[in-house]
Design goal:
The relative contact order is 0.14. It contains 10 helices and no strands. By secondary structure, the chain is mainly α.
Length: 258
């Protein structure tokens, strides 16, 4: 019964989203436009002027866009696993109310993952459409780059959820974003190759889920084979998704079940 009941949880989130979708859809398109204009076109013109050969033999805008796609999915996943979970457990206590129904803890966590994955997919598809509008890559190619971005986003949902359910208060979330999410955004190959990092920092970047997603997405858009075999990167991201989801169940049961 876990899967059917988890779909009920996702349905409840979708019903609530029907009242707020307009603002999020607008921001899903405006954010990538601003990112690409500021970083890809604005800063990119300076980078291209100083690097005529480009990065990976492409313009900075083309180099940057797939990385930003993955970064946007990552940030969306982190937000879904942080603030929505904290609201469900402590602020609004909707998770406690749902557990008073036939929905069990595994179904609750899985339903949260399903809906959060849907949100990551929405944001990623919107970014891919903007990429195609900027003529960075054809629409089909841009949509293919959504796949690794989606995996990274869902992995971040699982990782962040597993972290959030263990917190006693929301005070730990700003620290999580400051020391995990932001460094991952800056140093996982989005803005420059990881090989440009100091030697001691490169191994840390290589183990982040986002690095694998950036490599896969950039390989699809730019056409350069990623440094790590795609099958290994996909398997690595799936391990993060499964492990994060699994380790989120016990703390929720301990805190919310009588």
């Amino acid at each position: 019964m876990t899967v059917p009941l988890s779909l009920r949880v996702a349905e409840a989130e979708a019903r609530f989203y029907r009242r707020t979708w307009r603002g999020s859809v607008v921001s899903s398109f405006v954010t990538p436009i601003l990112y690409l204009l500021a970083m890809g076109v604005g800063l990119g013109s300076l980078v291209d002027a100083n690097l005529p050969e480009g990065l990976d033999n492409v313009s900075y805008l083309t180099f940057l866009a797939p990385g930003l796609l993955v970064a946007t999915a990552m940030q969306t996943g982190a937000a879904e696993g942080a603030w929505k979970v904290m609201a469900g457990m402590r602020w609004r206590e909707t998770w406690k109310a749902r557990l008073a129904s036939p929905i069990g803890v595994p179904s609750l966590v899985l339903g949260h993952m399903i809906w959060s994955a849907a949100r990551v997919l929405m944001v990623s598809v919107a970014f891919a459409i903007v990429m195609a509008a900027f003529q960075i890559a054809p629409l089909l190619q841009s949509f293919l780059a959504v796949v690794p971005a989606f995996l990274v986003g869902v992995a971040m949902v699982a990782i962040t959820t597993s972290f959030t359910v263990r917190l006693k208060s929301e005070a730990g979330l700003p620290m999580y974003f400051r020391f995990v999410v932001i460094p991952m955004f800056l140093f996982s190959g989005v803005f420059f190759p990881v090989s440009n990092l100091p030697d001691w920092l490169q191994p840390i970047a290589l183990v982040t889920p986002m690095y694998h997603g950036v490599e896969l997405a950039r390989g699809i858009v730019v056409g350069i084979p990623p440094a790590i075999a795609p099958a290994i990167s996909v398997a690595y991201l799936l391990v993060w998704i499964i492990a994060g989801t699994y380790f989120a169940v016990s703390p929720v049961r301990r805190k919310l079940k009588p």
